[in-house]
Design goal:
By secondary structure, the protein is of the alpha/beta class. It is built from eight helices and nine strands. The strands form two sheets. A seven-stranded mixed β-sheet has the order 5-4-1-6-8-7-9, with helices on both faces. Strands 2-3 form a two-stranded antiparallel sheet. The relative contact order is 0.18.
Length: 203
């Protein structure tokens, strides 16, 4: 198994209309569903949230809850908190709203991150996607500098990092349906993914 995944579950969910981290998918919360999938690939999962106790997760030797004390709602803050809390140098970082886990793609990204700040999959335009990729603790100083400067846009932040990009053609060869890019932003997205939850759970 790979060492550690970090799940960010502290967003505002403005487009969803309610806290999507707690949204129901097959009788469990979206966060629980995502964590369950990651536990098939990773020996440890950290869940970062403003109020982690409400997520319905039972922390144990494999699942750890991390409280984000910041008043700022931004993925960058969660990434920094997760990396600081992890005992591992290399960490896979994703959102609770990205429930599809693609083990083959994740393994390739892990092989690409060594010696770099991060390894990220590219979309069809060639742009690296900041979520659903590996980050190294070596990136922490630069990430914290951006936070101190008030720059929270991940699209801007990652341009300053030493990235190994996974080209779109490689991503698609490992993930033909591009499930790794599925994201729950609206109730309609959740309904669509709920109909496919059995295939997602199988990976």
């Amino acid at each position: 198994m790979l060492p550690c995944a970090i799940v960010l579950a502290g967003g505002k969910s403005s487009r969803f209309g309610s806290d999507k981290a707690m949204a129901d998918i097959g009788g469990v919360t979206l966060t629980e569903f995502t964590v369950s999938g990651l536990l098939r690939v990773f020996s440890r999962v950290l869940v970062v949230a403003k109020d982690p106790e409400k997520l319905g997760l039972d922390p144990d030797e494999r699942v750890r809850l991390v409280r984000d004390e910041s008043s700022t709602y931004a993925a960058l803050v969660g990434i920094i908190e997760g990396l600081k809390s992890s005992s591992h140098v290399l960490n896979y970082i994703t959102g609770c709203d990205m429930p599809a886990v693609e083990p083959g793609l994740i393994s390739v990204l892990y092989s690409l991150v060594r010696g770099k700040d991060c390894a990220l999959r590219c979309d069809e335009t060639g742009m690296p996607q900041p979520m659903g990729g590996f980050y190294s603790k070596r990136a922490l100083a630069r990430l914290e500098l951006f936070m101190e400067q008030g720059e929270f846009r991940l699209s801007t932040v990652i341009r300053a990092l030493d990235i190994t990009p996974a080209p779109f053609e490689l991503v698609r060869s490992l993930d033909p349906e591009l499930r790794s890019s599925w994201n729950v932003n609206t109730p309609e997205d959740l309904a669509h993914i709920s109909t496919l939850q059995n295939s997602i759970a199988r990976g």
